[in-house]
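Team,

Forwarding the record for the chain on the shared tracking sheet. I've put the sequence and predicted structure together so nobody has to dig through attachments.
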Amino acid sequence: MNVLFASGVKVDSSCKTAFDDLFNKHKHSYIIFKIGKNDTAIEVEKIGDKNAPYSEFLEEIKKAVEGGKECRYAAVDVEVTVQRQGAEGASKLSKVVFIQYCPDESPVRKRMLYASSVRALKATLGLESLMQVQASDLSDLDEKAIKSDLMSHQRT
């Protein structure tokens, strides 16, 4: 299924396959998506191994944006520990977070292309129920802050 929106950018079918493997089967720890060279399709750039730490994801997205010249989308499987009311002990939950990362240093044209194309990716992947983060700096992707946000969205 290729969804095309106002930006003219379509979503490559490999994005949906990789996302389903991450979201439903937890085969990966993260996926980094990019808009390809000709600005015509969103494609998978990097897939993190199942047990890769969050710090690896941060390193990979930092490399991908080339010092702030590029933007990226990502889906990250984040594990949080929650204490549920009435339950003994804590339980671990795995939640997928969608990230739209456009550094302030990236060219305006790139930021606009990523902003206008995100709806196609969200529609293809079915992201309505995921926590979503819009980041313009690596500090916006701090693991503790994201886990804290996830915890505040959990019903206990």
